[in-house]
């Protein structure tokens, strides 16, 4: 039987802290982050932090993050104008800490008809980490739309070369 004395605010806060730490430790061991839809377990990159971004807003930061993704996935970038019909389109928000580490993801528009694309996008984001630290912003949310061709190559809306009309 639980008494009022056992459920003090201090004990509840302590229990919440322990559970949060265990949950975060579990996230780190699998390579997944909160908001991830797939089972992609590619651990976040452990390379050196890229050159810092001087962006003054999340909108300005988009270009630096997109270039970073392109550099990390050079062989997967679709060059030229995309075909008129794309295999998948997805919009993903990526929350980054002040050091460029992926903290969480949130799909604004997930290409649910193509779960393999969801997994590949999430894996590409995790593999590219750490992202350029946003020197002037600290933690930042990067949002971009992924334009995916049936060949498995893609462009990001921020750096797209456009799309053919026919």
Strand residue percentage? 15-25%
Please work out how many helical segments DSSP would assign: 3
Provide mean pLDDT, rounded: 85
The helix-and-strand class reads: alpha+beta
Secondary-structure element order, N to C = HHEEHEE
What fraction, in percent, of the residue positions are helical? 25-40%
Stretches where pLDDT falls below 50 for ≥5 residues? Answer: 16-30
- Sheet with the most strands, sense and barrel status: 4 strands, antiparallel
If strands are numbered along the chain, what order do they take across the biggest sheet?
Answer: 2-1-3-4
Computed CA radius of gyration, to the nearest angstrom? 19 Å
First-residue to last-residue Cα separation: 71 Å
User: How many E-type strands?
Assistant: 4
Oligomeric form: single chain
Kindly describe this structure.
This protein has helices spanning 9-30, 58-72, 115-128; strands at residues 88-96, 102-109, 140-148, 154-156. The protein has 166 residues and is an alpha+beta fold. It is globular, with a radius of gyration of 19 Å. A hairpin with a 5-residue loop joins strand 1 and strand 2.
Topology:
Elements: H1 9-30, H2 58-72, E1 88-96, E2 102-109, H3 115-128, E3 140-148, E4 154-156
Antiparallel strand pairs: 1-2, 1-3, 3-4
Tags for this model:
3 helices; alpha+beta; single chain; 166 residues
Question: What's the quick description here?
Answer:
By secondary structure, this protein is α+β, with helices and mostly antiparallel strands.
């Amino acid at each position: 039987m639980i008494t009022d004395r056992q459920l003090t605010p201090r004990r509840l806060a302590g229990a919440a802290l322990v559970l949060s730490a265990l949950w975060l430790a579990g996230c780190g061991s699998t390579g997944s982050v909160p908001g991830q839809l797939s089972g992609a377990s590619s651990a976040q990159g452990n390379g050196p932090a890229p050159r810092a971004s001087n962006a003054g807003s999340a909108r300005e930061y988009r270009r630096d993050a997109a270039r970073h993704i392109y550099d990390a996935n050079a062989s997967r970038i679709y060059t030229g104008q995309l075909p008129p019909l794309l295999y998948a389109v997805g919009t993903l928000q990526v929350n980054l800490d002040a050091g460029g580490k992926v903290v969480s993801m949130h799909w604004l528009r997930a290409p649910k008809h193509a779960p393999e694309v969801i997994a590949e996008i999430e894996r590409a984001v995790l593999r590219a980490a750490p992202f350029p630290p946003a020197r002037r912003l600290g933690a930042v949310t990067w949002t971009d739309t992924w334009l995916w061709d049936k060949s498995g190559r893609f462009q990001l809306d921020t750096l797209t070369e456009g799309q053919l009309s026919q």
